[in-house]
Structure formats: structure tokens, C-alpha cells
Amino acid sequence: MNRRTFLKSSGALALAGTALGASATAPSAAAGPLRRVRPGDPGWPSAAEWDGLRQAVGGRLIEVPSPLAGCRRDATGKLCDAALKDLANPYYIQDQVGGTQSQGWIDAWTTAQSVYAVVPQSAADVAAAVDFAREKNLRLVIKGAGHSYLGQSTAPDSLLLWTRDLDAISLHDAFVPQGCEGRVAPTPAVSVGSGAKFVQLYDAVVTKAGRYVQGGGCTSVGVGGHVQTGGFGSFSKYGGLAAAGLLEAEVVTADGQVRVVNACQDPELFAALRGGGAGFGITTRLTLVTREVPEIFGFYGQRLTARTEAAYGRLLDRFFAFAEEALVTPHWGEQVTLSPDRGFKLAMVFQGLSETEVTALWAPFQSWLSENAESFETLEEPRIVTMPGRHWWDFDYRRKHLPKSIVIDERPDAAPGRFWWSGNGGEVSIYLAGYESIWLPERLLSVEQRADFVAALVEASRHYTVGLHFNKGLAGATPERREEARTLALHPSVADAFALAIIAGGQPLAFPGVRGHEPDPAAARADARRISAAMRALRRVAPEAGSYSSEMSYFEPNWQEAAWGPNYPRLLAAKRKYDPDGLFIGHHQVGSESWIDNGFVRVR
Q: pTM of the entire structure?
């Protein structure tokens, strides 16, 4: 049974959609505390009170050191050298309670250490920590993998909930959400702890069980936060969004209750968890739909530059005419990159097509390039890689057959099978200059609008590199996947976008406060200006389009509309109902407009 038939026959689609589509009422936010306490404040918990929390969570309360503590003591010592080398490894960062994937963002935030962290092994541990934070008026931070570009998983003087040990995975042949018996048809699914990384989930579901589950493109991304913000992966045009495949969640809300929510139980909260961000509660377990794994997964790559700007315009016009016909389909994902040197890079993935079919599909575009060869410098000829779909995330297969495609976590104490994609290395320990996104509507590819779109792309790429992520827009997906996307809390433009344009950059392996390795503020601000100028060019041709909440500007003034559009009032109502005192607050999360000073001071 396909996902659409399942939802329609069960009524789950109507229930989930109603929670965000009907008029919503909620009590006004309670007055609540105006200021969270910090160390040294009169209300800061005593040593005895902290010890009480430690006992309540089975001893799993720990202090939070900085991974760079040795460097700040001696930037030239061996301990610092070892730390800087390790901080190029995303899994090492995730194994550090105080580690974050990004080191900060110029004039925005810098990674900082909480005072204590709870490392829960159950929802009861999470509830105990939530109760303590609420009762003691503490700033509470939640971290899974620490991937937030907006700094949502770090705050000084806070209590950290580190979900890394909540990583159990179990598969179901016929799952029915709790309370939905007789209303929802059974479906194959997987339940996964919110602290698991996608490398673990893919290994269990795809490699070992031969099923497909929609998840993140980066193997080191954590499951919990990714699903709550929407959940794109490399093959979203096939599998949809992870949030759309969410059948049920176990979540701890601000009152310390452990709730099992789905389309039949707490539907308002369930709807908010499906794309509304991580500010509604702490998910401890999520149950996701699994589907048939495609027989073939593959990669298509090529790289060239145009010799003149006129040639660059012709190239882009021809490519997007081709893309409208051939690439905006359930088969294709990942990205096209345009750079200031008139560079054009294809790094696309596909499913369900043989190498012969892919070669034939691209033949018209490659013939056009050959006919116009004098206008371009070819840096890499077209390259096609195919493999059985079950092996796409298979560590042993990749290591044997495609070793250059991955980087392996080779630390002696590393968990087995950990790897990340070779192309993701520049994101690890980056100090961001800017990060902006916009969904590009499919209409821009039409004959009537393509010339303006190409002109905007040429202008944007003069300023900064532009990435067009075909997998992060649902245009071209099946009607079922697009219909599911429209029930989510995300900005509605996701369902009609052929791609998400991302313009972002920063300084890799740059560490504030570490002598000799600090970021260059002047260079970062110059890059920030170029990133903003590039995005302005694209917004002129898609002024109504939204942004992805996980990949938007820290300084976006209209972030509520940009991230969630008409869904925001209903999300805010759910926030006020389930978290009236703003215990779960992060930058650009629902309800954060009421807080300043990184979530410590409530202003309204």
C-alpha cells in the first residue's frame, strides 16, 4: 500500500492537516519568569540541589568542558595540535559534550559551554531534567548532533540535555500509532531514538533490512532535530520529507510529561513537530514510515567553466531548459553549483535508473556542450556511478568499491561503521560568514521566466557561490509526496519549488579564542556582504518564496514568515499551549521573538 492510500484510508492525513489548517485558539502565554538565572544569581541551584538532579538521572549529570580547553591554555602545545586535528572529524565533535559542528557566526553567536549536562538514557531522565530546569528557572539547551547553523544547541550558563544515548532502533512490519487502532491501517515503519545519527538509521533500515527511510543527506546529522525541522535528504523527490513520514513521536513537554503523540493523540503538538522546529518539546523516540528501497542509486558528476559571461548565460539557459524536462522528477536530487569564476558543477544523485538510461537522458545536454565546446573549459568529464540501492549507505561496500567517496572515522575508540561524505569536510568546525536559502518555484524554469531567472543566477554567482539543491524542493516528486508536504508546518512554497538555493560560506577550522587559529572578522564580514548581495538577486525573481528554517539567515528580520508562512500563528498557538513559559527557546524558533540575550530575558 502506498503512503497516500495509507493516509487517506486511515484519516491520518485529515487529522494531521486539520491541526495546522483549522483556526487555532490557545491561552495567552503566562507571565512567567522574566529572566533565567545564571551562576552567581541568588536563584542558581545549590550544590545539594544539583546533586539531587544527579541522583534523579542515575548519576548522568556531568560538567561541560570545552573541546578547546587545552588550546586556550597553550595554543602551541601537543594537546592543542591533537584537538585541532580531531575537530575536523564530525563524530569526534559529537562525542564531546561541549562540541558543536559550527564554531560560530560572525556578529551573531559563538559556541559556548553549558555548566552541566544531563545525558539521558530514557524519557524519564529527560523529564527529570525538564522538571529541574523549569523549577529552577534555568536556560535549557538541547543537543543531539550539534549541527545547528543558528547556534540553537549551545548557550553559556545553561543546562544541556545531550540526547546522544537515546539511539535505540527497532523495525516494525505493521505499525499502528497509539490510540489510532481501527482508524489507521498498519504500515511498515521504524522507531528510532532521537539521539541516533542517520549513519546508524540507514545501516539498520537500508543496508541490513533492505527498506528505505527518509532522512538527512549528511550521515552525521542527528535524527530528532532533523525530523522536527522538516527533514530533507538526497532523495527527497522520491521519499518525501522525513517529517511527512513521521507516524508518532514520544516527546517530553515543558510540564515534564512524557507524551506519545500522533494524528490521534495531541494532534496539535504532533502537527507542530512535523516541520515546526525543535521548540515544542524534547523528542525521545520517533517512528517513521519505511518504503521499498529503489533497486539502483547513483551519482552523476561533471565540472566546467564558461570562457565568457555571455557563454555562461547560454549554458545556464540550456541547462535549465534540460532540467525542466529531465531532472525535475522523482529520480533526481542533490545539487548544481555556480561559482564566481563562471564555474558550473554537477553533483547530482539519482534513483531507479540504469547507467544506460542516465547516459541517454543526458545525451541532449552533452551534445549541446560538444557543439559549443569552444565556449567552455571542461575540468571534469561526465562521470556516472551506480550501485544497488541497498548499498548506498553501506560502509563496507563504500570502503571496498568507492573509498574516495567517504572519510572514515578511524579513531581507535570510534564506533564501527562511522563515515562522512568527502564533500562535507568543509562544513566541519566552520566559522560562518553567512547562510541563506530560498525555495525556487518551478515556474522559473518556464520559457516565459527562464531568461530573468538565468540573469538573476548570473548576477548572484558573481557575488558568491550559489548551490541549487534539487532534492530540497518537492516539485517533480510524485503527487503523494507533494500532497504530504502541504500538510506540514513548513512554508508552503516547498511543495512547488524545484530546488532550494543555498548561498553560504565561512572559514573552515577557525576557532574563536585560539591564538593562531582565530577567524578573520574582516574577511567574514566581507563574505557576509557578498552572500547577502547574491541572495538579493535571487529574491527579485522569487519575492514570495520562503526559506528553510534550518538554513536561513541569522539576521532575517521576517523569519516567522520566511520559515513557516501562514502556518506561523497556529504554531505559536501550539507553543503557548505546550510551552507557555518558553522553556525550549532557540534563535529563530517559534516563540523566540519574546526573548532576548540568547533566551535569558523575556521581553513580552
A: 0.93
